[in-house]
Amino acid sequence: MAGQELSPEALALIAEEEALLSRVQQALSEARRQAAERTLDTQGLMAQLAVLRDDATTAHAADLPHVFTQMNEVRSMLERQETVPLPDANAPYFAHLRLSGPTGARDYLLGRTSFANLAAGVRVIDWRFAPVARVFYNYEEGDAFEESFGDRLSEGEVEARRLVIIEKGVLTRISTGPHLLQRDAQGRWHARGRDAASVLAGGSGTAARPGFLGVGRGTTHVEDAFGVTALLDAEQYAAVSTGPEQPLLVLGSAGSGKTTVALHRLAKVVFDDAKTFPQARTKVVVPEAGLARLTRRLLEPLGLGKVSVETLESWSLSTARSAFSLPGIKLSPETPALVTRFKRHPALRRALAGRVPVFKGKALPPTLDRLRLKLADAYLDRAFLEAVVADAKGELPRTVVAEVLEHTKQQTATPLARQYKGYDADSLVTVDGRAIEADTPDALAGTVDPDDLPILMFLKAQRGALGAERLAHVVLDEAEDFSLFELFVVSQLLGDSRSCTLAGDEVQQTTAGFAGWDAALEELGIRDAATCRLQVSYRCPRPVVELAQHVLGTQSPANAARAGREGAPVGFHHFPDEAQAWLFLGDALRDLVLREPHASVGVIASSREAAQSFHRVIKEMPWARLVLEGDFSFEPGVDVTDVDNVKGLEFDYVVLPDVTARAYPADDEARRRLHVAVTRSSHQLWVASSAVRSPLIRTFPGADGAA
Ligand SMILES: Nc1ncnc2c1ncn2[C@@H]1O[C@H](COP(=O)(O)OP(=O)(O)OP(=O)(O)O)[C@@H](O)[C@H]1O
């Protein structure tokens, strides 16, 4: 029922949308009943085909491709004797489009599964495929449209363009232009203003009191089955619609929708040509475990549940095992950070390319062991290492030479088990049952660093085919974190197909040594990739975007995306010592969780140790979780984690507990890390510090007020 305060127009709109939904639900239950009755009976399909044929004779030009596609679908189902998949009655569509044209007005509902009952005036079309979806994403209500569908030009007016949310079969929101109508739990409808309209866009109001955590975002839970699909802007939709064979590079500031575009593009590529791009031959690779989990969650509702999502490390291990036909590869338990940096640096790629003739060698097959020893020759060659450091132009410190030498010596030592071959196996085990070399430098003997795997595959490919299974399409998210060797391996897996999507933002690279987009594209063999630069920062409200740019300093790109909306000011809280800061934050979190039980909160510390230590303050609370290995549950509550875990993720509220001079000094890497942490918040950000504030925030307006 509608409330008294609503205008007659709003009441009419609600009545119209509710009637439409009920028509769709009736048509669906009728279709379901028929499907149950006939099982393999083909009559229903025949009838549907007949209706579609009729419709085709009177159809609007814009409608024809869609009608033909549906006819083809029904025909092929008739051939396969399958039942037609029906939209989920709980959330059958996410938008309503009414187009007028020479043959009158016609309603289209955008969803994920096509369904038509033309007698009832119901047309649910698939956003990934239906040509009419182009009108939805490219025009506003009231616009005249002109689009060519196949070889026919269609024009008319967008009479209505409404976003709707249907939760458990009940219409709960209608958003059109500046208006948002919302149904409360008691079934009363309310009108809200333009600001509130952004709630549908994952936004919120701005009514935050200073010193108060929470803007009301997490008071209620919205079950929006379609999420951001309904909200793609014209530019994003154009990128999503890039032809499947064309390599695509999606750039944009934090939260501008790069992941969103990359995954929606994958959905469209797979849907448009499932034969060439079957899900089983597509892959998404991301740097961190947390983002891999989130990606799986985002793929599921896009109908991409069978796409494999891997972290860089697990992908390169499984690819190396298949390339070298090995059941397992003994990885080093830990690689010093500096050695990792060396092995991922573009200067090493250039230097090894110069040594390729050595690796080409003579006839012996390029097994992992042989290549590992040849690579170790390079790592043990001081002049070679020094040349790499010189070429890195200050991005690798000179101390890296000694570290790589030492680490390689330990790895190339003969493992104790082999040295003592023939000894009683029990004598090689300590009293606590562990191998005698565990936790000693000997534990490294005979191991390979995870970062060596793509290098070894690069070396193998110099001698012929890599020998791993080919991919039809690959998505690389946070692509600025991929080393050139990894990109090389990807290019081998793609082979002649260059169908891939890279999403990235150079200012979010976590370590120094990004080769640049030109070099990345070159390595992938896709210099002609289409590039799109997303312009709007959807995740973060304006105050957060401003702080993020301030933190980056001169690294901030001139063409950074603009904030999509206003929002609560950033809260700065400074304390003489850490214990006070953490008690204060602990109380604020307790209070927030009570008020907003559905909110997601990220407490992002600068390091693993700091996260563990802060977690102790709230660990008794059932809603507090310590997440150090990317194992986010994405449930409401508080995740206490560190910067290395959060790339690509987002939380309603973010609290940074230790923005101190020690944790974030004035250097480029600290700037990028703090920038990643700051840009995780979609509604409000709190920055806390104790002792000495980080120089990266000190001069930001409002940052100097003590709590
Ligand atoms: N057109 C849009 N309208 C509203 N919200 C959007 C739109 N596009 C993306 N979003 C939302 O903005 C947030 C950020 O999107 P996404 O994670 O794709 O950005 P990103 O550029 O990959 O971020 P990061 O740089 O952190 O990896 C998500 O919540 C997403 O649903």
Overview of the molecule:
It is built from 24 helices and 23 strands. It is of the alpha/beta class and 707 residues long. Strands 1, 2, 3, 4, 5, 6, 7, 8 and 9 form a nine-stranded mixed beta sheet that branches. Helix 14 crosses helix 15, helix 17 (452-461) packs across helix 18 (484-494) and helix 18 (484-494) runs parallel beside helix 19 (517-524). The two termini are 47 Å apart. 45% of the residues are buried. The model is unreliable at 195-208 (pLDDT under 50). The structure holds adenosine-5'-triphosphate. Adenosine-5'-triphosphate binds next to helix 7.
Structure keywords:
707 residues; alpha/beta; Rossmann fold; 4 domains; 37% helix; binds adenosine-5'-triphosphate; UvrD-like_helicase_C
Record the SSE blueprint.
Elements lengths: L7 H31 L4 H16 L5 H17 L14 E7 L2 E8 L3 E3 L4 E5 L5 H7 L5 E6 L2 E16 L2 E7 L2 E5 L5 E4 L1 H4 L36 H7 L7 E5 L5 H15 L9 E5 L2 H11 L8 E4 H12 L13 H8 L1 H9 L1 H5 L7 H12 L2 H10 L8 H13 L3 H4 L32 H10 L11 E4 L7 H11 L5 E5 L12 H8 L5 E5 L1 E2 L4 H11 L9 E2 L7 E5 L2 H18 L4 E6 L2 H11 L5 E3 L10 E6 L8 E6 L11 H11 L2 E10 L4 H4 L9
Parallel strand pairs: 2-4, 10-14, 10-15, 11-12, 11-13, 13-14, 16-17, 18-23, 19-21, 19-22, 20-21, 22-23
Antiparallel strand pairs: 1-2, 1-6, 3-4, 5-6, 6-7, 7-8, 8-9
Helix pairs in contact: 2-3, 6-7, 9-17, 11-14, 13-17, 14-15, 17-18, 18-19, 20-23
Bound molecules: adenosine-5'-triphosphate.
In short:
The protein has 4 domains: 8-197, no CATH class; 244-320 and 462-534, Rossmann fold (3-Layer(aba) Sandwich); 332-449, no CATH class; 542-698, P-loop containing nucleotide triphosphate hydrolases (Rossmann fold), CATH 3.40.50.
